Amino acid sequence: MTMMTSIPAPALAAVDRAASKYIPTGRDKDFRHQLDRLFARDDTGALTAALRKDPGTGDAKGLAVIEAPGGGKSTLIEKGLSRHPFLEPEFEGHLPYIKINAPSPATPKSLLIELLMATGYADVSWSKSEQEITKLLRHRLQLCGVLIVWIDEAHDLIGGGTPHKVQTTVKSTKNLMQGVGAVGLILSGIDTLWTLISSDEQLNRRFSKMPLKSVTAVSDEKMLNSIVRTLCKEVGVEAPVSSDLLERLVHASRGRFGRFIEYTLAALETAAYAGDAFLDVHHFAQAWAQREGCEQGQNVFLAKNWAQIDLGQFPGSPARGGR
Fold first, then answer.
1. Is residue 163's pLDDT more than 80?
2. Which one of 176, 252, 288, 311 has the lowest number of neighbouring Cβ atoms within 10 Å?
3. How large is the C-alpha radius of gyration of the chain?
4. In degrees, to the nearest 5, what angle opens at C-alpha 162 toward C-alphas 134 and 119?
């Protein structure tokens, strides 16, 4: 292999810079379109900073972003919210949007308290009733100018999955979109989030759905190759030229967009440690083996029959978690 003359430290710093770089794709455009739909338009059709309300009930709208673990939906949403012109803070204490992870255990009270704390209200007493916390939360939402509430890992709101738990959770989430100080609600999570959304007809009707598809080496070839080249350029190494590397990488990532980027960065880090001036399949193989704990014969980047390898046996399989 061709060796770089510089010491590993600068190369590793370059990998860290690449990891902090956000590369927009068509997914960002699609999310922006869905986010804009939560806002009202004026008589000329121009978007306004006011929330869109149901003409019959006056309730605000919601958006459910659903994707398998490791797809990168949380980063997609965070970037979309932080870059929206209506959601930029205008003064100290102004919170156009807030974000929480679904509490565990998920109960109506724990949900309300998490939201209250996200507004900057730290002194929350569990001795207060749900009605008292709800009243305080509504006051804080209005005081801070909150327009959008984002609940990540929202599938956890289902709790134990009993009909009663689902219904009480549905009521708590639906109440945020109603009445004075109503907010637009974004729920993000894995496929089981459909259970929460579809369990209540009114909630289901208020929400737009944005399922994010898996990536493929065929339909997404141009985008994925561009991402690899961009990251390699950021680090200062030559991009790989292997004819089937992209297919192997997509398979190793289980079609998850977020994991595709993570594994590419891991391979770049391996190359940086080795002091190599170009990225190749061996860097991916080593980085993937370290993360997956697989034997050489089961390594997607080395095996001839890589497409037949059952990835469900590895810790990184969708059934075993990951965001």
1. no
2. 311
3. 23
4. 25
| DSSP-based three-state secondary structure for 161 | coil
Please name the helix (run of DSSP H) or strand (run of DSSP E) that holds residue 265, with its range, or none. helix 257-274
Q: What is the pLDDT of residue 252?
A: 95
Task: Report residue 136: phi and psi, to 5°.
Answer: -65, -40
Angle ∠(174,211,248) on CA atoms, nearest 5: 145
- Can you read off the two tokens belonging to residue 300? 């997607």
Return the structure tokens found at 291. Answer: 């993360």
**Residue 258 contacts residue 323 (beta carbons within 8 Å):** yes
**Tokens at residue 74, please?**
């949380």
CA torsion sign, 168 to 174 to 179 to 180?
positive
* 312 Cβ neighbours under 8 A, 6+ residues apart: 319
Is residue 108 within 8 Å of 130, Cβ to Cβ?
A: yes
**Which of 248, 268, 255 lies closest to 19 in space, CA to CA?**
268
Tens-digit pLDDT profile for residues 120-132 = 998 888 899 999 9
Q: How far apart are CA 43 and CA 215, in angstroms?
A: 39
- Does 322 or 115 have the greater pLDDT score? 115
